[in-house]
Design brief:
Radius of gyration: 38 Å
Number of strands: 44
Mean pLDDT: 76
Helix content: under 10%
Structural class: mainly beta
Largest sheet: 5 strands, antiparallel
Strand content: 35-45%
């Protein structure tokens, strides 16, 4: 209701909004400390022995005020500006506010700025790591044109800042002074982060801080924006991908992207939506089939996608099965809300990665390029599941070259106390473990069928401009090596037939050469023969047989008169077999081939 308030000519009044009230029945009242009288019309609530009341003023009070558009009722009060309302008495002003309420609560991302807190002193117990004083200069920004800060690395008294397109060094507790002679000097400064000095070269870490690795004074990282693998050391930034691998990294780094995608890691169905045994502790039984991307250790909670994201809310109290199919038992708190037979699809989110790490055992920098395929893993082409591509390679500082390709796909790499480790699906694995016999070629598995063969590729190119006929292959080393292929250079394109418009590349090839033990066969007379490598004076050798004379089955004798391939050069790959001491050590010292100059 409206009221009339008498106002003296020398005074002023404020109309103050004290609080917003949604439900007076919930004992929400205006907060006016120090005033005890109850205003007219104020509702009585059971506030206990020490009730809180509003000021005793006349006017429209909150219980009868209209409800605003936001659905709230407001409590309004009239306050005099001068003390006691007297002439020339002290007037009350708003004064200085202790804080300002920011009505615009938008989150702000300072992607190119650094901020630091107070200090932590373990001796005195002072901990100011959660103190960020606005009265001090505690921020430092780098040039935003070089992108966001992706990685920080503290080295001695400097801080190395990796942006997307630049690498800089921030001085700590000191500044750089440039002399008139062009030199530099450092002096102590009164701020933690001093001057930021960029390294020479337009290189950055892109958006792949996971590629960073460090050993000694060398730092390694990738810049996929520029298709380069880089090393930062005392002589600055060096592009180590240019050591014979520039086109390789150019092509594969271009396939790395920042896109996220959903892949299926398993599927299944609800076998039973209720089981009344064992005091009703079991409520659901899930039958799921997992692929190689999912760990058997599923955890205490389950998530899946079936026309939306569902969560059990219950706990897995039992897992049964040997894989790839498992039975999961959920407790009574599970709230799946589905009937028996409901199909379930388990999914996860993934993106491309470039994992870098230092192999302290072999003193190599290892980088794994893990491409995020544009196709989902549950999509099939010709009934074949599309897998993600990955390439794990290592760089050796001693020869300034890339030495090996590896057959494992890590989630994280690192070395600790002279041991090299990698993580995969939440598991920690030690490499170069000699305590378990015959474990070579097994990565993240103990199943011998998952063993990966080691291989070495050579190029034979003596007398480069002369056409040759390669007749044999021989090697010095351990037993157990086989020749996967021995091929000449590609000559073409050539028509597949006379007058044909279809063209193909021609390449001379030979049969696979089995290892010494792999090539054993028995003829019909019970005599043992070898179709692969032969051993003579601790050297293994074999003839190169063309495909028209295939490797003999037991009881079959081949024609060894037709051997060799022709070409200017030949590409050869030797790999370990699964027959000779599987998983054991196999050494290879040298590989050679006997050839003659071609007469045609």
């Amino acid at each position: 209701m409206g009221v009339i308030v008498e106002v003296k000519y020398f005074n002023s009044f404020w109309l103050k909004k004290v609080c917003r009230v949604t439900d007076w029945a919930k004992n929400v009242v205006p907060d006016w400390p120090g005033v005890t009288p109850t205003p007219p019309g104020y509702p009585s609530f059971p506030f206990g022995s020490n009730p809180l009341h509003g000021p005793s003023v006349e006017g429209e009070f909150a219980p009868t005020s209209p409800i605003g558009e936001d659905g709230y009722q407001a409590a309004w009060f009239v306050e005099e500006m001068r003390i006691k309302g007297g002439f020339n008495n002290t007037a009350i002003d708003l004064g200085v506010k202790a804080y300002i309420v920011d009505e615009k609560r938008n989150q702000e991302h300072l992607l190119n700025s650094l901020i630091y807190s107070g200090v932590y002193n373990s001796r005195t117990g002072i901990n100011q790591t959660n103190v960020f004083s606005v009265g001090e200069d505690i921020t430092k920004s780098v040039d935003p044109i070089n992108g966001s800060i992706q990685r920080l690395y503290a080295e001695d008294t400097n801080l190395i800042v990796f942006q997307e397109n630049k690498v800089s060094r921030a001085l700590i507790d000191k500044d750089t002074i440039y002399t008139t002679e062009g030199g530099t000097q450092t002096q102590a400064a009164n701020r933690v982060i001093g001057q930021i000095v960029p390294f020479l070269g337009e290189y950055g870490i892109s958006k792949n801080p996971e590629s960073f690795a460090v050993y000694g004074y060398r730092k390694y990282f990738t810049d996929r924006y520029r298709g380069a693998v880089l090393r930062l050391s005392r002589d600055g930034i060096t592009e180590i991908s240019s050591y014979g691998m520039s086109d390789y990294f150019r092509d594969h780094l271009a396939e790395i992207n920042d896109d996220f995608r959903t892949i299926e890691i398993g599927n299944g169905y609800i076998l039973s939506n209720y089981l009344g045994a064992a005091n009703d502790v079991l409520k659901y039984i899930l039958v799921i089939t997992l692929n190689n991307e999912c760990d058997v250790e599923i955890g205490s909670q389950l998530w899946w996608d079936n026309a939306g994201v569902w969560e059990t809310g219950g706990t897995v109290i039992g897992i049964w099965g040997t894989g790839p199919q498992y039975w999961l038992f959920l407790n009574e708190h599970a709230n799946v809300g589905m009937i028996s037979g409901t199909q379930i699809k388990f999914q996860t989110i993934t993106k491309s990665q470039i994992i870098g790490g230092w192999d302290i055992h072999s003193k190599n920098f290892v980088v794994s390029l893990q491409e995020n395929s544009q196709l989902h893993m549950d999509e099939k082409v010709n009934n074949t599941v599309i897998e993600d591509k990955y390439y794990t390679v290592s760089f050796d500082e001693n020869i300034n070259g890339w030495t090996s390709f590896h057959s494992y796909k890590p989630n994280f790499l690192g070395s600790l106390k002279n041991k090299y480790y990698s993580f995969y699906n939440s598991g920690l694995f030690e490499h170069y473990d000699e305590t378990t016999p015959n474990n070579r070629g097994l990565y993240y598995s103990t199943n011998p069928t998952d063993r990966v063969a080691s291989s070495i590729t050579f190029v034979f190119n003596p007398n480069a401009s002369i056409s040759k006929n390669f007749k044999t292959i021989n090697y010095e080393g351990s037993n157990g090596w086989r020749c996967d292929y021995f091929t000449s250079g590609i000559t073409g394109p050539m028509p597949v037939a006379v007058g044909s418009s279809t063209w193909t590349d021609l390449q001379d090839v030979v049969n696979v050469v089995p290892s010494y033990e792999e090539g054993i066969y028995i003829d019909s007379g019970g005599v043992k023969h070898r179709a692969g490598f032969h051993k003579k004076e601790n050297k293994y050798y074999a003839n190169l047989v063309k495909p028209s004379n295939s490797i003999p089955e037991p009881g079959q004798i081949i024609n060894r008169g037709i051997t060799g391939i022709k070409g200017y050069f030949a590409t050869v790959q030797l790999s370990t077999d699964d027959v000779t001491d599987s998983g054991g050590m196999k050494e290879l010292f040298s590989v050679a081939s006997e050839y003659v100059v071609s007469s045609k």
